[in-house]
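Troubleshooting log. The previous structure file for this entry was overwritten by mistake, so regenerating from the original sequence record. Sequence copied from the archived sheet and checked twice against the printout by T.R.
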Amino acid sequence: MELALVVNLGSSSLKGAVIDRAGERLWQGQGPGGSGASPWLAEQLEPWRGRLTLAAHRVVHGGERFSGPARITPELVEALEALVPLAPLHNGPALALIRALIAWDPALEQWACFDTAFHHHLPEAAYTYALPARWRAQGLRRFGFHGLNHQHVSETVAARLGHPTQLRLISCHLGAGCSLAAIQAGRSIDTTMGYTPLEGLVMASRSGSVDPGLLLHLMREGLRPDQIDQALSRESGLLGLSELSGDWAELRRAAAAGHRGARLALAVFQHRLLAGIGAMAASLGGVDAIALSGGIGANDALLEIELRERLGWLGPIEWLRVPSDEEGLMARQCLALATAA
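Regenerated output below.
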């Protein structure tokens, strides 16, 4: 039996699953992120030693080079190392986990699946920053992220709605990280994240978009780039706004109890989300469906109600909640590629 181990190391946790070619999950679990990920996974996988066909890793940033899954080789590991600065919260830990699995079973075939790949064919107008040509020549452009789940959402919605060939869909990945994708006929034509996963919506501890002039001001005040990176990536977003937590459910409870910071965090989050949905609708020229996914989007029924009320001006559209399933998509892709090779 062909079995794929799928490893999805997010910004706050590690999800793992063993999935067969038919899509059945023979094992799945969720453990800690960070330095605790590798020991936890090794313990969970001991019963599966020698039985796995391949391992597929979610890698957030694939840069300009990677437009689909790639088999992991020593050369690929070097290429992934060069991409770590573009997504330090994700690519560094993912690379560490890849190396840990190489040590655990050197014979295990491993694949990297990139969150940027679904957005690889964005129109030039959507991926280009209005920067000097000498900077753009260095590859400074918008990439977009959460592509694995946006692709899963696109395929799921198309199946539920009867595979309409011109479906205009806004996929809303809302969790610890948040992004939107404007998807037309199964292709991403616009998205909210950019060169790194910092651009766009408010997230759990990431700021989302801020005025570049504000960052220049902080640098002139003496803050180092690493200090700014730490604040924007780990101390901002819902956590920074509320001064309480980056956890959505906790903020919902605190806001209901009257916590001012929690209420501010929810209000800013929704303001940015509504503005982003409006921008995606403009890129699509109209909307047929909006799908809510991610830990927040798929589970918070109140958020769907609030968005429906605020977005009534879009006219009659389909609303769906789609649980994330990067793991299933990765297993299907990599087992198919391994068989073809």
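The first strand starts at residue 3 and ends at 9. Archived copy saved in two places this time.
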